[in-house]
Design a protein that fits this description.
Elements (H helix, E strand, L loop, with lengths): L27 E3 L3 E7 L3 E4 L5 E10 L4 E10 L5 E3 L2 E5 L5 E10 L15 E11 L4 E4 L4 E6 L1 E3 L3 E3 L8 E12 L4 E4 L4 E8 L6 E7 L5 E7 L4 E7 L8 E2 L3 E3 L3
Parallel strand pairs: 3-11
Antiparallel strand pairs: 1-10, 2-4, 4-8, 5-6, 5-9, 7-8, 9-10, 9-11, 12-14, 13-14, 14-15, 14-18, 16-17, 16-19, 19-20, 19-21
Length: 255
Amino acid sequence: MHIRTAVVATVGSLALLPLLAPTAQADDHKGDIVFTSVAFSKTTVNVGISETQKLTVTATAKDSSGIRMMVGLKLVSSDSRIQYAKSYTCTRPTSTTMKCTWSYSLEPDRTDYADLRNSSAGTWHLDLEASAYDGDYYTLDSSATMKIKRYAKLATTQATPEPVTKGKTLTVTGTLTRADWNTNTYTGFAAQKVALQFKKSGASTYTTVKTVTTDSAGKLKTTATANTSGTWRWHFAGTGTTSSATAAGDGVALK
């Protein structure tokens, strides 16, 4: 997409415009103009149900005739929603370069139209164009990407009975939930594989004992043999749309 506009940036309230966002195209350019760097402050942002998460994007463009402006300045979600920057700054480090930084606020609390929706989780791409004084241009449509994920939580691990006789069976339970941006609640994450891990007393690392699948409410329940004292915990590796999570452990002594 080649942008032709007279504005340098849009500043003000965030806007998500699901009907206006085009499908990502391949990057396009004309002449010797290049983006020498494009950097996100975070390559993955995990968003819960209330706390705003901040993100900045910094890009530097160069052309032999000098950079006239950068336009676009938007992040496009996996469901084609557009999010514009709340603020920006631009400088000219040299006569041939321009460097701009844009600040975004990712908000899930449903207080306005710009807040995140579940369908927005996943890979987002930066949509940005730099134009030069000689008419050259470079459009980023798909190559600069990052992830915005729904924040996941694992409830504190519970292992019973405590203490336990050596060689006897422990029952270990837990619950996996994740942020629901449509309802502003944490809801059970069903059908997910979660690792049950154990760390011996005095050890520094955990070892995966088995993998358990959450039920329809995100609950976990399994049994394990207690051969030594130590701490049990649950660990979820995450998905393309949901963050990883690790539960607080439950120490169990032998009797």
